[in-house]
Amino acid sequence: MAIQQVQDDLLRKSYPLFEDNLVSEIEEQGEFKTFPANEVLMRKGQYIRSTMLVLSGLIKIYREDDEGNEFLMYYLRPGEACALSLVCAAKHEASPIMAKTVTETDVMMVPVDTMSEWMSKFKSWYQFVIETYRTRFDELLATLDNVAFRSMDERLEFYLKRAKEAQQTNLLNISHQEIANELNTSREVISRLLKKMEQKDMVKLNRNTIELKKF
Amino acid sequence: MAIQQVQDDLLRKSYPLFEDNLVSEIEEQGEFKTFPANEVLMRKGQYIRSTMLVLSGLIKIYREDDEGNEFLMYYLRPGEACALSLVCAAKHEASPIMAKTVTETDVMMVPVDTMSEWMSKFKSWYQFVIETYRTRFDELLATLDNVAFRSMDERLEFYLKRAKEAQQTNLLNISHQEIANELNTSREVISRLLKKMEQKDMVKLNRNTIELKKF
DNA sequence: ACCGAACGGTGATTCAAATCACATAGCAGT
DNA sequence: ACTGCTATGTGATTTGAATCACCGTTCGGT
Question: B91, A149: Cβ pair inside 8 Å?
Fold first, then answer.
């Protein structure tokens, strides 16, 4: 099958509500790219010239501060786009976030100027943009709730649930250090809490893997 | 002057980018309301049937959790609307937030169904919606940063700066207890930190008022 | 099979913030 | 002016989490 055909299938499957004309324009204007796992797609402070439409794989979006602290905001799955890239693209602002692939990921890069045209041209596009804002807003609120109201053990549970859902597996391949970074705490704290969860038979721990049992 | 004329003036002044036809429809479909200071406009869990367009005054938007904890998300000033009410209105979902007036406030209540029509009918309306999402997203990120990365003294400073800007005054009429609630901490902590700031000559404290000096 | 790096476990200590306990000050209503 | 309520000040104690110190384990590379 031609490469173009594969890309078209991916796009239509991930974004079933897009009109045919919109799909054609995306294919014309956009650039198809594949990134390996664990690749940083965007750093804080970079300028954004295009939005990524996720076609396959999984992306993590982080917030970073000036001292190198970071924490996980949310995941992006196929059919989703980052609200922030829509924001920044529109304002030609520097990115306030960092994006990183979890698994190998296919995306379609769409240039900014094109996007704003589509807003008036394609109903399905602005519905998509609105829906993107909506779901990202909800996700961000959930993250905020946890940071503001919950103690570290509750936040860890929430983190693991979210990871399970995003990655569709009970077997997470991740180190304690990485979890600590994503919750903006220290490795020791996570190790201790995970150990307690193991004693309650909620998880099973092995080097670089966490098996989720009661989730 | 007729009441309708006053309302029309307020609306046009606060939302100068709205098309004439849109202003007419808002006046036809919407309901003009005035709330006194310190009135709760919306509680968590309520269902949202309309969005508020702020015409004058000032509103605070809080996040609440199930145990009665709360914290301030951001302010809404004239010309602004709450992104969340747009979200929930669209999804017919319960409100995840609480809204409260700071000063006497005039708003225009717009029913949900009408709003979605406007999305395709009035370019200035969907531009407004997009812009609302954008700015609320930015505000929410700033709030999140503070909770996630900053210590309580830094968060307090940020809080005071934001309050000054929203209320356009150096003389805040607010108790330590109220600040504590809005930062989800305890009154003693705020009293102590404010005392330290007074010693540094950053503020001047009096019963129910805080005078901001170096801000 | 050995080495070095990354990973994970765990006690001891420090620290910021929450909580407890109580005192004092200022304002509002009678 | 008295009363009572709300707001504020401040020490003492507790607590959850961060940090420090150090250990053994596992894995990948040669």
Answer: no
Q: A177 and A203: one domain?
A: yes
Does one domain contain both A106 and A49?
yes
**pTM beyond cutoff 0.90:** yes
Note whether A141 and A162 are same-domain residues. no
CB contact under 8 A, B141 and A140: yes
Q: With contact defined as beta carbons under 8 Å apart, do B40 and B48 qualify? A: no
Domain of A167? 152-212
Q: Of A83, A141, A148, which has the smallest distance from its Cβ to B184's Cβ?
A: A148
Find out whether A73 and A97 touch, Cβ atoms under 8 Å.
Answer: yes
Q: How many CB atoms lie within 10 A of CB B61?
A: 22
Sequential pLDDT tens for chain A (215 residues): 688 899 999 999 999 999 999 999 999 999 999 999 999 998 888 888 888 999 999 999 999 988 889 999 999 999 999 877 777 666 777 788 899 999 999 999 998 888 888 988 998 998 898 889 889 988 999 999 999 999 999 999 999 999 999 999 999 999 999 999 999 999 999 999 999 999 999 999 999 999 999 88
